[in-house]
Structures are given as structure tokens and as C-alpha cells.
């Protein structure tokens, strides 16, 4: 199982590193600076969602480390 | 076209930077922000109203001396209602009324080629306390198109259930994170994140019957995210997929799709669809009970035995769908307001890649969020 995860991750990293693509220049970043293009969404909303999903589903986490836990298992 | 419009969600940009995690904003924030949110959440199953939550929260982020930022948040969850003691049994459901208080603070130092963040978080309930620390660093490539991130976090939890089933039990968890964010084109950005978490201690649920779980849990996640900007449509698609696996034998897939559509006069509407599916824990048992003892005991149950068992619906095999919509409006330069409504349903028969757990009632939930953000 762990091997499968590592292979998936390596594939993802290789794809993301995509050296074949021409680099995006600073003056081409106008759209990327928009709030809706940020990878991370609204902080409080994310926290709400993680909390309520962790209270009824077994999977949790994935985007950060060191969050406060809760008694909801 | 976009440049003539109000900076829709600029406040959300600042708010987004409050969360310790990965983002592609590696330069110090120019303005501070305060956000206030209120959440109402309610879940039920046929014949039983389950948990209700009222949850106000506030978050603040401020730049300091041009090279630092401090962010913090505080939340109160007022939780009440009923929860089945095994499977989805209505009879004998446990009643709860609890107040959870949680807070966190993160200090970030911005360097020419990256960031270093230190964070602390805590939460308390009348029967549970959690404390956590984290350290994270990011490094940006010379062309600024790739960002690597490494993080480590630890948490220390203590539980003292009101039924005194156990006293002063605890759980310690160590987590690591590795991620890469890549700008592909002027309208495409993607991120891959791997986290591993290893914990030891008390994982059983003291309020569930015949619940005995292993005293350690390893969890692995791979999270892939991709945002694409449709300039002609003035819209953004936000897609993510998470694979989860743990040492309880649970694996899960989560697919999230959002479409952020800008409208006139500072309005934004964002429909959201989330699909989730999980395999059951190895020690979860279906609602078929011992012929002699009856419910909630699994067939062949041995009193005082050490076998791992659980009848917790959360550890069963099921699928779930969430559909929601968020409406936001930018008011002037400094204010924004947003409202989000979501509906969730979970059913055994909705599991993908296999059969779901039989014999459980569907779980449904509704959530409502309203928020204000002010920049300064």
C-alpha cells in the first residue's frame, strides 16, 4: 500500500515539475494572483469543513499539519 | 475586463493566508484582515435528529514589519443532540451537550526565497483537550514557478469521558508534510501534497458500545489540486482529489469540484460538488448480532476479550455526496460578505469500487455559513 502511495506521489511530483512547459513570466501572473486561483481556500470555511467531515467520515487531513484535534474521533 | 471590476474576494485572499498550509503567496501580506463567521450545522437520519452545532468564529491576520505576519483564530462550537451508541440504532442513543473552544496562532517569516512558519493550536471540551505545534518551510524556485514545502507537526490529546469508562487516556500524533506547487501556464496552477501521520494512544470511542480499536494509527494522504482560469467566462474551476489510507484498513477517495463564477457589481456565485467513498475498517462489523447476546454484540463476542470491534457508522463502507452553493459580495474596497448552504447525504449503497456496508440508515446533514471580512 505504501509503495502505491509513493508511486502515485512520485508521478504527481514529476507531472507538477513539468520541465517541458515554458516558464510563466512575472508579467503573465495577473490571473494567478486572483483569490479564487489560490490553492488554499477560505481559512475559517476550511476549518469548519474539516471538523464536520471528520465527525462523520473516517478520512481526514491532507493539506496541513499540526491542527487542533477534537473528541469527535 | 476583470481589472475594471471591484477586487472580488480580495478579503478572502487575505483570509486564505490565515491557514497554515500550502499556498502560492510567498510574499508578505500588505494588509491585515479580520473575518467573522457563523456556522449552523444539523444532521439527522430517518426517525432521529442527531447532532446540531452552532459555531461562531473569528480570525485575524496582520503583517508585521514588512517581513513577518501573525495570524490567529478562535472558535466556539456549541454541540448538542443525539448520537447512536452502535450502528444507526435509535433506541438508547446517547445525548450530548458540549461546548468546544479552539484557537490557534501562526507566525510566518518571509524570506527572499521562501517562508518559515511556526504554529500552535489548542482545543478543549469538557471531556477532551488537544494541543498541537507545527513547523513548516517553503522554498521557491528561481523562476518563481515552483514552490516546495516541508512541514512537521505534533499533537497531544487527553480524554476523560463523562462515563468514566477510561480516565486520563491520551493520544500523541506526529505528522509530516511534503508538497510541491507548480505554475503551469498563466491560467493553470497545481499542487501535490503528501502527508503521513503516526499516532499512539486511545482511539476507541468511549460513548459507543463494544468499541475497541487498535492503540496506534498510521494515516497517509495524497492530495492533488488544480485551479484553472477561464478568462472569457470570467470564471475559475477548482478541482481536487484526495486519496486516504490508514492502518485501520480504511481507504477513501474524495473528489471536490468548485466553479467560481464572477457576476456584475462584485457578486460571485460558487456551486460546489463533493463526492466521497470509503472502505470499512478491518474491525467494523455489520449489524448482524450474536444469537445468544443479541445487539449490539457481534457473533462470537467474548466479554473481556481483546479483539478489535466497532459498530461506528463512521468506520463502515459508504459513499457520500455534498452539493452546495456559496454567494459572495464585495462591498467597497474593504468589506466582503458571504453565505454558503450545503446539503450532505451518506449511504452504504453509494460506495464506489465495492459494496457498501448493509443495514445502516442514511445520514443526512445541512450546513449554513455566513461570514464577513474586513481589510485594513
How many strands of chain B? 16
Helix proportion range of chain A = 25-40%
Order of helices and strands of chain B: HEEEEEEEEEEEEEEEE
The strand count of chain A comes to 0
Q: Report the sheet-strand fraction of chain A.
A: under 5%
Radius of gyration of chain A: 17 Å
Largest interface: A-B, 55 and 122 residues
Give the low-confidence spans of chain A.
none
* Low-confidence runs of at least 5 consecutive residues of chain B: 1-24
Overall pLDDT confidence of chain A: 78
CATH architecture of chain B: Beta Barrel
Largest sheet of chain B: 16 strands, antiparallel, barrel
Approximate shape of chain A: flat
Structural class of chain A: mainly alpha
Biggest sheet record of chain A: none
Task: Describe the structure in your own words.
The complex is a heterodimer of chains A (73) and B (376). With 73 residues, chain A is mainly alpha-helical. Chain A has a domain at 34-58. Helix content of chain A is 38%, strand content 0%. Chain A has helices at 2-17, 43-54. The longest helix of chain A has 16 residues, at 2-17. Chain A starts with a helix and ends in a 19-residue tail after the last helix. Chain B has one domain: Porin. Chain B is globular, with a radius of gyration of 22 Å. Chain B has a 16-stranded antiparallel beta barrel with strand order 1-2-3-4-5-6-7-8-9-10-11-12-13-14-15-16. In chain B, strand 5 (114-124) and strand 6 (128-140) form a beta hairpin. Chain B has 1 helix and 16 strands. Chain B is an all-beta fold. Chain B has one helix at residues 10-16; strands spanning 33-45, 48-64, 68-83, 94-111, 114-124, 128-140, 146-159, 169-185, 188-201, 216-230, 235-246, 251-262, 267-278, 318-331, 335-347, 363-375. Chains A and B meet through helix 1 and helix 2 of A and helix 1, strand 1, strand 2, strand 3 and strand 4 of B.
Amino acid at each position: 500500500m505504501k509503495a502505491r502511495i509513493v508511486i502515485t506521489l512520485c508521478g504527481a511530483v514529476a507531472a507538477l515539475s513539468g520541465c517541458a512547459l515554458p516558464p510563466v513570466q512575472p508579467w503573465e501572473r495577473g490571473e494567478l494572483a486572483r483569490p479564487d486561483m489560490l490553492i488554499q481556500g477560505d481559512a475559517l470555511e476550511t476549518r469548519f469543513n474539516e471538523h464536520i467531515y471528520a465527525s462523520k467520515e473516517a478520512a481526514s487531513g491532507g493539506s496541513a499539519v499540526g491542527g487542533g484535534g477534537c473528541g469527535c474521533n | 475586463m476583470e481589472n475594471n471590476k471591484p477586487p472580488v474576494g480580495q478579503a478572502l485572499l487575505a483570509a486564505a493566508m490565515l491557514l497554515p498550509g500550502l499556498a502560492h503567496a510567498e510574499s508578505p501580506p500588505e494588509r491585515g484582515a479580520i473575518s467573522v463567521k457563523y456556522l449552523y450545522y444539523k444532521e439527522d437520519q430517518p426517525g432521529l435528529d442527531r447532532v446540531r452545532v452552532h459555531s461562531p468564529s473569528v480570525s485575524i491576520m496582520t503583517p508585521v514589519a514588512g517581513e513577518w505576519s501573525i495570524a490567529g483564530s478562535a472558535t466556539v462550537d456549541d454541540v448538542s443532540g443525539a448520537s447512536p451508541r452502535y450502528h444507526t440504532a435509535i433506541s438508547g442513543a446517547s445525548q450530548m451537550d458540549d461546548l468546544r473552544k479552539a484557537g490557534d496562532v501562526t507566525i510566518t517569516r518571509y524570506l527572499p526565497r521562501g517562508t518559515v512558519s511556526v504554529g500552535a493550536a489548542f482545543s478543549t471540551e469538557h471531556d477532551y483537550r488537544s494541543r498541537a505545534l507545527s513547523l513548516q518551510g517553503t522554498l521557491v524556485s528561481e523562476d518563481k514557478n515552483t514552490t516546495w514545502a516541508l512541514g512537521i507537526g505534533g499533537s497531544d490529546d487527553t480524554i476523560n469521558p463523562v462515563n468514566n469508562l477510561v480516565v486520563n487516556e491520551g493520544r500523541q500524533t506526529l505528522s509530516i508534510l511534503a508538497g510541491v506547487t507548480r505554475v503551469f501556464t498563466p491560467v493553470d496552477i497545481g499542487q501535490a501534497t503528501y502527508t503521513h501521520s503516526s499516532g499512539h494512544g486511545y482511539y476507541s470511542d468511549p460513548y459507543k458500545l463494544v468499541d475497541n480499536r487498535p492503540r496506534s494509527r498510521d494515516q497517509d494522504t495524497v492530495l492533488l489540486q488544480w485551479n484553472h482560469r477561464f478568462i472569457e467566462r470570467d470564471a475559475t474551476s477548482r478541482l481536487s482529489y484526495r486519496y486516504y489510507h490508514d492502518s485501520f484498513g480504511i481507504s477513501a477517495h474524495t473528489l471536490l469540484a468548485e466553479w467560481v463564477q464572477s457576476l456584475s457589481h462584485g457578486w460571485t456565485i460558487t456551486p460546489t460538488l463533493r463526492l466521497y467513498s470509503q472502505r470499512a475498517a478491518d474491525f467494523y462489523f455489520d449489524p448482524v448480532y450474536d444469537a445468544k447476546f443479541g445487539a449490539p454484540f457481534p457473533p462470537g463476542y467474548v466479554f473481556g476479550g481483546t479483539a478489535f470491534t466497532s459498530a461506528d457508522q463512521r468506520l463502515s463502507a459508504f459513499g457520500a455526496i455534498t452539493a452546495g452553493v456559496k454567494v459572495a459580495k464585495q462591498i467597497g474596497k474593504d468589506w466582503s460578505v458571504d453565505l454558503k448552504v450545503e446539503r450532505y447525504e451518506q449511504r452504504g449503497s453509494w460506495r464506489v469500487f465495492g459494496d457498501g456496508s448493509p443495514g445502516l440508515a442514511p445520514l443526512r446533514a445541512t450546513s449554513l455559513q455566513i461570514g464577513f471580512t474586513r481589510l485594513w
